[in-house]
Specification:
The chain is α+β, with helices and mostly antiparallel strands. The protein is built from four helices and 13 strands. The protein is globular and about 55 Å long.
Length: about 280
Amino acid sequence: MLRSGPQSPWARAALVVFSIAVVGAVIGVGAEEVSFRRAAVQDEEIYARPVDARRGPSAAEKAQVQRAVEGLPPYKDAVPEPLAVDFLGPKAPIAAAWFRTDDAPDTVLEFYRGAFLDAGIPTVGDRTGPSSGYVGYVNPRTGETHLVTVVAEGGKTMVFPSVGSVEGLASDGATFPEGMPHPEGASKPMVLTFRHEGRVEVSVVSKVVSAAGGQSVRELVAFYRKALPAQGWSLDAVQEEQDEATLEASRGGSRITTLLRRRSPEEVDLYVRLVGPA
């Protein structure tokens, strides 16, 4: 895990949830692009139709990119392009851009991490998977999160600089959604709900706190192996290591993914993503 300098628990949570929101948008954009490509192949005549040539980004797109990269150093000679702006609604202002590089994800993350450390900025980051991760910081004066998310794809690394806040989407009285089992000792969750195209996506961030030597990741996996079927979920896949595990389950038209990751002897991070019909 990339980590340096003091950072409040709320700032760390903001980074995690903000990263989930940005990566979720990226995945959604990618899925739409794949669907478009499949449709285009079935109708090759569209390529023969005249297309108005564009002479570069509009003033609004330039402003969006400038907003997304604010507070971030430029990466070599990369030229970010606009991706999305305020896609989560007025309660969560976000501007995101993107660019592609031949450099490995770790190279990109270490570049930004080093730049933040050189500027004396407390930095938090994480590798959310073998081909993805993020690094960034929260500005204590504005409350905005400045983030760089990376995803390896096709031998390249997609880089998504962004700035914004998702605190407005988090409910102070948030609880685990109905039908989402959670172990004893799980902290009050941060819950984000997104609705799009007849589907609902719920992202939950929590942690399981116990005394040193308490519940292990393996014991928590055992809990979910029983709790998910008990609530009607069909357990589809389990990937388990010493300090990390992923469980996938389905129920009707819904799917649930649970990630457990050992943070310290006393804490296990808990990330849950539930996707189903609206």
